[in-house]
TrEMBL record:
GO biological process, one term: small molecule biosynthetic process
Top-level taxon of origin: Eukaryota
PROSITE patterns (alphabetical): FE2OG_OXY
Short name of any one Pfam family annotated for the protein: 2OG-FeII_Oxy
Name used for this protein in its record: Clavaminate synthase-like protein
Species assigned in the record: Hyaloscypha hepaticicola
Family of the protein in this entry: Belongs to the iron/ascorbate-dependent oxidoreductase family.
Length: 342
């Protein structure tokens, strides 16, 4: 495969300081970023560097548990729980080189928490952090509602975390250290190229633990952006990287763009970061009974549950097509070898 083409893009930065007084200015900045890049760095959002670092410590205490313990809360079809080397991306056909644990506020999380005595304080710390993420998200939701001509609380109500129907997720991610002497097989990524299917994602990274790459939705014209130009996003202390998901793209009648992104498996010694990488992604998902339709009615109205199901179905269909294509290539290679041997 041809090597990735890289380009340095300026990443839009949006500060939420003095939110109440600056809401019009912030709304204009967010709408511009959503229409052009589909992603931006958020500063002065109210979650301190210490609070973020404490949640990273909480995350690492979870991943330090034996696999047997984590396997007691396995990934469920309700989008909660733990998985390891299991998420296969349609863009690569290979499992991501990582483990993750997904937590929710609502009923989908029943049975997916570890007992308190296994990891004292874990659930409480996680909820505190998730609520802080929700507060930040609600500010963004107010601005996006205004920008699209909806009532201020329109998106906030559709993402109400106090209801059992809530589907919002905090995903803790852990990418394993990579041996710089072992060549990376073709198509391997810590996380393969994808767009998120939520409303908007808040991504937390740790300074120095690089690897995130983005390809703004508007410019992505090839399959999964593989032939497009990518940009490396270096983690900045305290910053939240936000990207528009497919849900907001659809809810804005495609005015806002969801953004392709991925995490590279390190391969270039002296350039890439080979150590352990931790990240955390807060996915704003609609309540199962929320009604989704853009102001222009470009797409038929669907419920949050239907939207989520359709996104998962699309993912499975794309994955099946990728696997079949890989089999054709593998069989072709075998045929070629047979001819060469004859
Ligand atoms: O770990 C990261 O930086 C990205 C994770 C991600 O994109 C995802 O889980 O959807
Ligand atoms: Fe993502």
């Amino acid at each position: 495969m041809a090597p990735t083409k890289y380009t340095n893009r300026t990443i839009p930065k949006v500060s939420l300081h003095d939110f109440e007084n600056r809401v019009e200015e912030i709304t204009a900045q967010l709408i511009h970023a959503a229409e052009t890049d589909g992603f931006f760095g958020l500063t002065n959002h109210g979650i301190s560097v210490t609070e973020i670092e404490n949640m990273f410590e909480t995350s690492s205490s979870f991943f330090s548990l034996p696999d047997d313990t984590k396997a007691t809360v396995p990934f469920s079809h309700l989008n909660a729980g733990w998985e390891k080397n299991a998420q296969i991306r349609p863009s690569t056909g290979q499992p991501d080189q990582k483990e993750s644990y997904q937590m929710q506020f609502g009923a989908n999380m029943n049975g997916s928490w570890l007992p308190e005595e296994t990891l004292p304080g874990f659930k409480n710390n996680s909820f505190t952090f998730m609520k802080q993420c929700q507060e930040v998200s609600e500010k963004l939701m107010l601005c996006f509602a205004r920008g699209l001509g909806f009532p201020d609380d329109y998106f906030v109500k559709a993402h109400d975390i106090s209801r059992p129907e809530s589907q919002t997720v905090l995903r803790l991610l852990h990418y394993f250290e990579v041996d710089d002497k072992v060549p990376v097989p073709e198509g391997y990524y810590r996380a393969g190229a994808h767009v998120d299917w939520d409303f908007i994602t808040l991504l937390f990274q740790r300074p120095g633990q690089s690897g995130l790459e983005i390809c703004p939705g508007r410019e992505a014209s090839t399959s999964f952006g593989l032939g497009d130009e990518w940009t490396k996003v270096e983690p900045e202390e305290g910053e939240i990287v936000c990207n528009i998901g497919d849900l907001l793209m659809s809810w804005s009648d495609d005015r806002f763009k969801s953004t392709f992104h991925r995490v590279k498996t390190p391969s270039v010694v002296g350039e890439d970061y080979f150590g352990t990488r931790y990240s955390m992604a807060f996915f704003n998902q609609p309540c199962t009974d929320a009604i989704i339709q853009g102001p222009l009615g470009k797409y038929e109205a669907v419920t949050g549950k239907q939207f989520t199901q359709a996104a998962m179905n699309r993912n499975f269909a794309a994955l099946k097509a990728k696997k079949e294509a890989l089999e054709v290539v593998a069989n072709g290679a075998k045929d070629g070898a047979a001819v060469a041997a004859a």
